[in-house]
Write a structure and sequence with these properties.
The chain has 219 residues and is an alpha/beta fold. It is built from seven helices and eight strands, in the order E-E-E-H-H-E-H-E-H-E-H-H-E-H-E. It has a single domain (3-215), classed as Aldolase class I (TIM Barrel, Alpha-Beta Barrel), CATH 3.20.20. Helix 2 runs parallel beside helix 3. It binds iron/sulfur cluster (SF4). Residues 37, 39-41, 44, 46, 90-91, 120, 158 line the site of iron/sulfur cluster.
């Protein structure tokens, strides 16, 4: 499933293919273009092969091409939606160039389209360079999963392939992204994280000059 809406319901019903989403007025459309991710979070829905293959967000036929994604979009009027969210079952910036190409093409038709990126914030390590300038004019909001109040806990939770440097890297990414993107937020999940740790995360975000968003827990 490449384009979908989120219903707020638990489990598979929580994700609805855009084709089955009815009237799109005011809705967020989620874009899922890759299965790849530099992490293997302990809480991720893709921990086992079975979990992956049974999930409708797993791209069973491989990654869609730019043309295929644009073809899917061509059936809908994006003037009526709230926001486009690059998110999905993998890390969107694993396909940085293709994601940018899709946004550029859509913005030709919809110059006022609001676009958000949900990311683990490790793109600069993936590419070995600062990619944040490429976010300019494309994303209105970048939402980075902070996950933890320190580097050890972050690594324990995400099992990032980049090791202990990952936590510093996502914080740098947030600061660098602020130069190019109007809204940069970091997120943690309510209830999963105790209040004292949320407080520490709040301070970290304050120091970085970004907003902390405490996402509601959905099991
Ligand atoms: S960063 Fe997201 S997609 Fe990647 S393993 Fe963690 S939860 Fe899953």
């Amino acid at each position: 499933m490449v384009l979908y809406t989120v219903t707020g319901k638990v489990g598979e019903e929580g994700y609805l293919d855009i084709a089955k989403s009815g009237d799109l007025t005011g809705k967020n459309i989620y874009v899922n273009m890759t299965n790849k991710c530099p992490c293997s979070c302990v809480f991720c829905l893709r921990q086992t092969k079975k979990q992956q293959e049974n999930n409708t967000l797993w791209l069973k036929d491989g990654e869609p091409s730019i043309e295929e994604v644009l073809e899917l979009f061509s059936k809908y009027d994006l003037n009526i939606i709230n926001e486009l969210v690059f998110c999905g079952f993998g890390e969107p910036l694993e396909r940085l160039e293709d994601v940018c190409a899709v946004i550029d093409s859509l913005k030709n038709t919809y110059p006022n389209l609001k676009v958000r990126l949900n990311t683990i914030g490790l793109a600069n390590l993936i590419y070995g360079r600062d990619v944040t300038p490429e976010l300019e004019g494309r994303f209105d909001t970048v939402s980075i999963s902070l996950n933890a109040p320190d580097e050890n806990e972050f690594l324990e939770l995400t099992r990032s392939r980049y090791g202990i440097q990952s936590y510093a890297a996502i914080k740098d990414f947030a600061v660098l992204a602020k130069r190019y993107v109007p809204h940069v937020v970091m997120t943690v999940v309510d209830k999963v994280m105790p209040e004292d740790k949320i407080k520490r995360c709040r301070q970290i975000c304050k120091d970085l000059g970004v907003t902390l968003r405490v996402r509601p827990f959905e099991n």
